[in-house]
Each structure stands twice: as structure tokens, then as C-alpha cells.
Amino acid sequence: MAYPIIHRNHGEKPATDAIPTLRLVQSGRSYADRLLEPGFPYGEDLLQFIWQQRLFEQHALRTTDGRPVEVLKPGRIQQNSGPDLTGAELRIDGQTWAGTVEVHLRSSEWNAHGHQFDPAYENVALHVVYEHDAEVKTRQGRALPTVELMSRVSTDSIALHHALMRGQGFVPCANLLGQLDPLRTSTWLERVLIERLERKTIEVEALYKQLHGDPAETLYHMLARAFGLKVNAEPFGMLAHALPLRTVLKYRDNALRTEALLFGQAGLLHVDFVDDHPRQLQQEHALLAHMHGLRPAPVAAWKFGRMRPVNFPTVRIAQLAQLLMRCDGSFTALLETDTVAELHHLLDIEASAYWTDHYTFDRPSTPRPKRLGRAGADHLIINAIVPTLFALGRLQGRPEAGERALHLLEQLPAEHNQLLRSWGQLRHSRRHRRPWPGPHRTEEHLLHPPQVLILRHRQPVAPQHRQIGS
User: Fold this and answer.
1) Domain limits at 378?
2) Claim to verify: residue 152 and residue 270 sit in the same structural domain
3) pLDDT confidence tier of residue 21, bands split at 50, 70 and 90
4) Is 96 helix (H, G, I), strand (E, B) or coil?
5) pLDDT tens digits for 288-301?
6) Domain co-membership, 11 together with 158
7) 325-360: b or e for each residue (b if 16 or more CB lie within 10 Å)?
8) Residue 76 vs residue 434, higher pLDDT
9) Phi first, then psi: what are they for 66, rounded to 5°?
10) Is the residue at 438 inside a domain?
């Protein structure tokens, strides 16, 4: 069953956020015209999204049998088997319920799908439908409260939502951005930036606590994960845990030992090699691992498939070795610089000579220097240096560090990143040309699937001043 909860006061309202509103400009017949036909002409996924994002008229909401309904939490759409939304909280006729929500185009689909026999649907707190055409019950015979949305959803908004959900462009809403007020767009983009930094800050703060408040070790872990890109971020994180910064920095004046520690702790020196270089690395690692009591990370975690050879973890580890050899032990230079140009200079690194004609051990290739490059440096700045600087500013009560982090982001060029480049083409004022990681967050978390960018039916709120380190 759906179990009542009593910890909320009846006058309490759920917290909501607000973002700008997009309106559909109709010309001729549109998707909205199809809504005049019987039923709901789109898929159930759109109706689920409308419910989750509260894109319907909520005033005086009632069940089909007349009981008042207040949506405290609409729930979260889930893709596994079972009810469509989990974690919902609803007040129905004065009683607060926690449970799941099932969404159908018509009420009768509950029985058509066999939910009346399925115990997984016993805890459904509310049945949300576009059209109510049948009374339904759960497996134990409980009459299911039902809300009908047919008269509560704006037809032009549904058409807009449908178009955005089916958008095929890099930014599905690109042709609608011109309809937004530039100030409100800028405010939203600013919020996206802060959201990404907040998400990264949580990651950095967790590492900082786990690493006993060591800023240098924290940055080392963030840099290692960034070197792994998306595919090998986790294995690089395991490598950082298997090889403390203080240990590897003891040998930063010795290239062979630095590489030996990194490749050995990565678990990549466990086979019989032909080339002299990996064999020397094996010997050095065996000695150093015994000396420092080191245990390698699991080798099975590394991924080489379906990526450019220049991004193979072997090449990236060799580049990380060069960066560690250039650092002073506290990473002071990386965290205290004021300009991206200085960071580009510090990150101008190239893997050792062996890797000029290798991407992996024992497999010669066409000679090519394995430089990190400007794009690689920008990736480290965006995903490691700036988030760490921002988080440390908060953790250490230094708001100027957070401001410096934002200043670094504003200096980054867009030409090395397809996400930033595509968004840069859409910005319609100089203020919108910031190539900071907001578009990373936007593309990955607000635009896929594209309906997440649909801007809600809520009044815009006054932009809040950004506060760093609070």
C-alpha cells in the first residue's frame, strides 16, 4: 500500500525553483490542433514529464471523485520495471501519502497492462491520466485515486514540449532562444554554471574530507580523474588511491621511477614485456612497491576500446607522470595562478621519449609527440583545477579563491570543445560568450533527453546574487 506520513505541516509548501519560460509561437495548424482529436496524440513519456515538471494547472486540483489533491513531490521518472515515478508525496483529502505514481493516457490502460494483478503496483499513491474512462483498483482491491489532466494542460505548451522532445539538432531549442529576453537567458546560464560548480564542489569536498583535509592530495585526485576523461575517470581515481601523492613526489626528479610507480600501481606492468623500457619499469616498481608497501589497483578496470589512441590510458598516465615531475609538491602554482595563459604554460607537457612512437607497451607506432595540447589542458582546468579552487575557497573561507575560479572559466577559449563551440554559436550577446563549463552541464544533464530544457510554467524570479564560499 501507499503509507501515510505525518511529518509535514498542512500549510507547508514544497520547495520549487524557477527558470525562464519559453512560449510557442504558432503559425497555421500546429501540434496543438491535434489535441482537438479524442485522446492524447503523443506518447506516455510526454505525459510523465508534464506531471514530473508540474506543467499543468495545479490550482484546485482534485481526484476524479472530487477529493482535493496537493502535490508535495511529484516523484522522479524511473526507467525500470514498476510504476512510472518514485518518491512522490501527495496530500489527498487532507491525508499525506508517500508512494509511487503511475501515468497512463487513459485510466483503462491500468487494467489493459495487468497492473490490477501485479503486487509491484500496490503502493501506487496516485493514478495520473490524460483522460479518465474507467475506475480501477489495485491487486488488494483498493480503489485508486485518479487525477485527470485533460483540462489542465495547455495545448500550445504540449505542442512546444513535443517539438523539443523530438528535436534532432545539437540544441533542440536553438530556434526558440531568440524569443527569450537576453537578461533572463543570461540569468539562466549563470544558474547552470553555478549548478555545475556546486556539483563538482560536492565531489571535491567529499575527497577533501576523505583525504584528511589535504588540498594538494585533493587536487591530485581530481587531476588524475580528469586525465582519465569520461571513460577512464574511475580507474584513474583508483590509481590515485593506490599511489599517494606524497609517495610519488619523492621521486619527481626521476622520470623512470615516477612512471614505474604510476604504471605499476595502475596494474599495467603485470605481463612479460619485450621492450627494455617497460621491463625497467617493472624492476623499479617491484623495488618501490616493496619499499613503500604498495598494492596495485585492479588492471581490469582500464578501458582501451573505442577511443582515439592518443587518449589511451597508457599515454595519459605517461602525461600525468610529466605533470607530477613539474610540480613543487604542493601544486601551489596550479592553484594560485590568475590567468589561463599561465595554466597553459604549466600544463604544456609531453610524455617521455618512449611514447613518441608508442601508444601501448611493446607496440611501435608512427612517431608522434604525445603532447597534452591546449584542448587537454583546458579539460584539466575545467574539470579539476577550477572546481578544486572553487571548493577550497569555500572550505577554507577564502571567497577570493572562488572568484578567481570563475575568472579562470571566463578566460577559456571555446574552439577546443564541441559543446562550447556549438553553444557559442547560439549566444546572442557578448555577455553570453562565456565558454565556461555551463554548456557541459546543459548538454549532458539539461538537453538529453531534450525535454529537460523545457522551461516551466512559473513566474520568473529575480536573479539572485552569486555568493562564493558561503
Assistant:
1) 211-412
2) no
3) very low
4) strand
5) 999 999 999 987 78
6) yes
7) bebeeebeebbebeebeebbebbebebbebbeebbb
8) 76
9) 95, 5
10) no
